Amino acid sequence: MRTAMSKRKKIIIKLCMYLGYLLIAAIFIGPIVFLFVSSLKPYVQIESDMSNIRAFIPYGDLSLDNYINVIVKADFFKFFKNSVVVTIIFVLLATTINAMIGYALGMLNFRGKAIIISTIVALSIIPTESIIINRFMTVNSLGMLNTYIGLAIPSVAYPMYMYLYYNHFKGMPKELQEAAIIDGASYWKIFTKIMMPLSKPIITTVAIMAFIRSWSDLLWPTLVTRDGTYRTLPLALKSLFSDTYTDWGQVFAFSTLMVIPTMILFLVFQKQFVASVTSSGIKG
Amino acid sequence: MANSSKKKSGLQRGESKAAFLFCTPAVVLALVFIILPFAMSVVYSFTNKQLIPKVGIETAFVGLKNYIEIFTSKVTVLSFKNTFLYALIVVPSVLVIGTVLAVFVNQKIKGVQVFRLIYFSPQVVTMTVVAVIWAFIFSSNSSGLLNSFLGLLHIAPQKWLQDQHLALPCLAIMYIWQNLGMQMLIILSGLQYISEELYEAAEIDGCTTFEKFIYITVPGLKNTLVYVLVSVIINSLKVFTQVYVLTNGGPSNATTTVVFQLYKAGFVNGQVGYSSAIAVTFFMLVMVISILQNKFAKED
User: Fold this and answer.
1) Interchain pair B263, A133: CB under 8 A
2) 3-state class of B229 per DSSP?
3) What is the CATH number of domain B74-299?
4) Interface ipTM
């Protein structure tokens, strides 16, 4: 009798847990569902649906009109291309240049190593925001305003990435390198042919961090782009949103298209994605 | 013997040369885009440097004038206050709710991993998009999403982002919503280090769930929570995106934050000297927090 009771109690507790999980899930995923659903509705319906639960349900006059408008009128793919180009340059350089210095600091012996390491630690405290105006002044005097280079390069050397790589390479077996040296391999060859292929997990982590950073950055593109030509997605969304008349349908379609690449990355690299984002939480 | 040491020094020279080449790109870029701008910020903060040089006005040393202005300008003082207030809303919410959530999803129940990922998923949404979605949720008309929901509970419609007192909390909620799942996962990984035996012992002693949470979970999470605390403080002090996209610092400067203010002073108003002084003050603030964290971490 008693065991039957406690069994029943257990089931009830479990059900309550699931109910709790679902309710909390609704808070986190509700706004995202709302975004996707609304991107398919005409503006008039978005407005009339927003006072009730229908805001979260795909029903009514659903179409891809908003998407067509965003692509034809709001020139989505021009900004998409800018974001893609800047992000590719940034991710490629950030993963390699910081890996190179990380490799040298972690696996090679040379004078001045200790100074460089402590400088990196010190620099990692500086928030980008506190040097951004004068970084802009520097980029301006180098004549790099309104260029892909000016958008991508300045934040490539990133103390935290250097430190991550340094830590990683410090832990690599030295024997591997020694054996390669005896075989007559150059350090460049050791780095590109042996060390980097063995470092895929850390490269993925840094690449995901760099992707998110570049893809979502709003402040830097605001400073260094002069007109629409080099505007990236967040900036383009901001101006679409701040138009005197905000067409919410278009804003939501634009936002959805903008989120999809990150979403794909998240779904494909779930574990690494979570690992990168959580480890980049400390210093940004 | 002598021969081998000679060979070694030759190798060492090769190693140093290689190391130098490997370091060069990163060092050059860091010099030009981190160290130089940082030095400029410090130097310019003592001058009246302008973005676009004005005819007849030379850049000159002005001593502490910019720093004095930080403490006397109403808007700049307010920007620091607002930023602290924002952090004061974000940090405890993320810590407390994040810990509770982490404990809540730390169960061996089927499907719980899926829920963890769902709670994390707002992190995938770019902040600009988060701002746009929540701007709609916080629509100020009475048929707005949140206002309609509150209407069901017989709460009068609010002006949200247009309300001086509510605008900043609204911006904080956006960040909490985006960030909470991630902090939950960090705390969750901290929970794995707390020994199961402690809970069993407490069970025998007749502790309630709440007591177990306060006396075992929270102390066991100390290191993780300090880490989360510091990273959330620093990140929330950098608040800019929501302000820039949604409120432009308004209404009546209620959402002007430090980073927004230094952006406005330097880029919009062209007062690079003044902006640099704000930037240096901001940097010192972050540095103090980082040093305090290191001190805390060393005590353990």
Assistant:
1) yes
2) helix
3) 1.10.3720.10
4) 0.90
